[in-house]
């Protein structure tokens, strides 16, 4: 009888860990969510966590990653997907950002090739994209 009483307690204690795992998987559910998670982690200066968005990210060295200036806003928009064979996609998108409140949004184009892995969509490599995203 005492063992049955422990089950709800264990579920209560393990619940947050299970929720965190579900959230982690959700951020890699689509190519768009992976790219958005990457940029969010970068503006939060969570470079080691940003490496998780890459195919070989767990073994990478984050010391050479791009340092972003302090931003008050950053968002990825206008996603365009080009599906490739073998669980790959080329994703182009615009990044809009604002350095200070009251400033207008700045914008630049970016793109990445992503692969579908056992843990979700991961960035395989950046792609060169035109300077201005239509």
Task: Show the helix and strand layout.
Layout lengths: L1 H25 L4 H13 L3 H5 L21 E12 L3 E11 L7 E12 L2 E7 L8
Antiparallel strand pairs: 1-2, 2-3, 3-4
Describe the structure.
With 134 residues, the chain is of the alpha+beta class. It has a single domain (2-126), classed as Nuclear Transport Factor 2, Chain: A. It is built from three helices and four strands, in the order αααββββ. The chain has a four-stranded antiparallel beta sheet with strand order 1-2-3-4, covered by helices on one side. It is globular. The relative contact order is 0.16. The mean pLDDT is 81.
From the structure above, extract its key features.
134 residues; Nuclear Transport Factor 2, Chain: A; alpha+beta
Number of domains in the coordinates?
A: 1
Radius of gyration: 18 Å
In terms of DSSP E residues, the strand content is: 25-35%
Global outline: globular
CATH-derived topology:
Nuclear Transport Factor 2, Chain: A
CATH structural architecture? Roll
Class from secondary-structure proportions: alpha+beta
Largest sheet: 4 strands, antiparallel
User: Helical residue percent?
Assistant: 25-40%
The low-confidence runs, each spanning 5 or more residues with pLDDT under 50, are none
The ordered string of helix (H) and strand (E) elements is HHHEEEE
Number of strands: 4
């Amino acid at each position: 009888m005492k063992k049955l009483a422990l089950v709800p307690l264990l579920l209560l204690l393990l619940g947050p860990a299970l929720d965190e795992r579900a959230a982690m998987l959700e951020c890699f559910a689509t190519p768009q969510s992976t790219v958005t998670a990457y940029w969010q982690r970068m503006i939060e200066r969570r470079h080691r966590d940003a490496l998780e968005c890459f195919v070989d990210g767990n073994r990478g060295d984050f010391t050479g990653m791009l340092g972003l200036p302090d931003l008050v806003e950053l968002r990825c928009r206008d996603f365009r997907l080009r599906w490739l064979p073998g669980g790959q996609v080329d994703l182009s998108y615009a990044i809009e950002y604002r350095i200070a409140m009251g400033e207008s949004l700045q914008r630049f184009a970016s793109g990445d090739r992503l692969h579908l892995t056992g843990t979700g969509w991961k960035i395989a490599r950046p792609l060169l994209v035109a300077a201005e995203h239509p």
